[in-house]
Give the backbone structure.
Amino acid sequence: MNGSIPTAVGAVALEARRVLNGDTRHGACSIDDEIVEPLRASCVFSQEVWWQVFIWIQVPVLASFESLSQLISHCFRRGYDKKKEKAMYAICLMTTWYIWLHRNNKVFNAKNTSVNMVVEEIKTGTFWWISA
């Protein structure tokens, strides 16, 4: 472990070998063990945030999704003009960013944030970013 940083993924492996006895659940939803993609589609919290964002931007809600790339490509299937495409890109980036911030706040600061609060932060952050 010279110079390496411990991660939840490494903790899962260590726990499986009974070297570590800690909490290795996913940082955002605390349901399953965390894997390499913390914004994974199986995270209930991430799903709820994305569904609320889809409703806000009037994109049909995906009943299920497998990956972040599938979500983003779903947002861009519409053939938007350049201005709308820029806004959609900003919304996708902000959604990903705020889910990640929620995950870090929960894991490192023991702070929980509601789905509605994260979606409001996404809306506000996107507005300020596009307005800049």
Remarks:
- The chain is about 60% helix and 0% strand.
- The radius of gyration is 17 Å.
- The CA atoms of residues 75 and 88 lie 7 Å apart.
- Residues 1-6, 20-24 have pLDDT under 50 and may be disordered.
